[in-house]
Amino acid sequence: MLTVGIAGLGAIGLTLAKALDAGVEGLRLVAVAARDRDKARAAVAGFASPPVVTDVADLAGLADVVVEAAPAAAFEAIVSPAIEAGRIAVVSSVGALLPRMQLVERARETGARIIVPTGALLGLDAVRAAAEGKVESVTLVTRKPPRGLAGAPYLEQHGIDVTTITTPTRVFAGSAREGAIGFPANVNVAAALALAGIEPDRTRLEIWADPTVTRNTHTVTVEADTVRLTMTIENVPSEENPRTGKITPLSLLACLRGLTATLKVGT
Ligand SMILES: NC(=O)C1=CN([C@@H]2O[C@H](COP(=O)(O)OP(=O)(O)OC[C@H]3O[C@@H](n4cnc5c(N)ncnc54)[C@H](OP(=O)(O)O)[C@@H]3O)[C@@H](O)[C@H]2O)C=CC1
Ligand SMILES: O=C([O-])CC(=O)C(=O)O
To answer: What is the ipTM score, two decimals?
Structure first.
């Protein structure tokens, strides 16, 4: 049995918390944290087994597994205590890990683990397998309804107003590392892909603001010596946060199940 603490109770965290409260073999939700404590308390009040509502820094003292499901700006405050305490940190804001790879070194010293779920993407098992061989290129093309990109720092810096876009428009082309900086709340999938494959500077990313799509759509292309992959996922945006695909909390749940499962499927 692993105990679980969740930081962030939004589109990802609250859905995951509800699923754990409904009962998942081998996992028990014991604590949650969010910015607004009263709101968090109200969110879990009706749970069958209400978890403790606490500060993000205290989750690691209460749970074996700390799930980060908060904005990127809170990443370090949530994940560092978990690493210092030697816990398992399951992270959603993957873009925030890229400039903090020293946390991985620190985890090696404390015995902690950092787990990046597939999240809103697909096929990281195949990308990881390919990366055991020789990979020539990895490309991600992301298309989102314009409102799924609104507020990104890169758009503001370049004077791009996505709300006025009426035809599919490429608003960014660059590396996964540059994308994670410019779109911290929109392309965690690119960061996860980079960590699975050939590094953030070599992973190419295009972002399209596309008024013709209703789903957050990601296409991964990999050219390797053993395989050529083209994979597309079309995510239904969640009601709580249209930037976040509804599959994301389900991916985290599947990931958590894998921590205790006797039968584990996939890489
Ligand atoms: N890896 C992946 O594939 C994906 C990753 N993501 C990323 O996952 C993260 C969470 O996404 P999502 O659930 O949609 O976000 P939401 O905006 O729906 O929810 C964020 C939650 O974090 C809480 N929060 C805000 N500030 C803090 C803080 N300083 N400390 C603790 N909690 C805080 C909020 O609480 P309050 O309401 O009190 O402010 C809220 O409960 C984001 O970084 C997002 O970009 C999203 C989709 C896919
Ligand atoms: O990568 C992200 O942050 C979110 C995303 O694109 C999605 O949910 O489809």
So the answer is: 0.98
Of residues 188, 105, 100, the one with CA closest to residue 144? 188
Cβ neighbors of 209 (< 8 A, separation 6 or more) are: 144, 145, 146, 149, 160, 162, 165, 168, 169, 171
Q: Which of 218, 238, 252, 253 is catalytic?
A: 218
Which residue puts its alpha carbon closest to atom 27 of ligand 1?
A: 35
- Length of the chain measured in residues: 267
Q: What is the pLDDT of residue 249?
A: 98
Q: Report residues whose beta carbon is within 6 angstroms of any ligand 2 atom.
A: 120, 186-189, 216, 235, 243-245, 248
Question: Which ranges in 36-172 belong to alpha helices (H)?
Answer: 37-44, 59-62, 75-84, 102-110, 124-131, 153-157
Contact 208, 168 (CB under 8 A): yes
188 backbone dihedrals φ, ψ, rounded to 5°: -60, -30
> Which ligand sits nearest to residue 240's alpha carbon?
1
pLDDT higher than threshold 90 for residue 267:
no
Give CA–CA dist 20/38, Å, rounded: 21
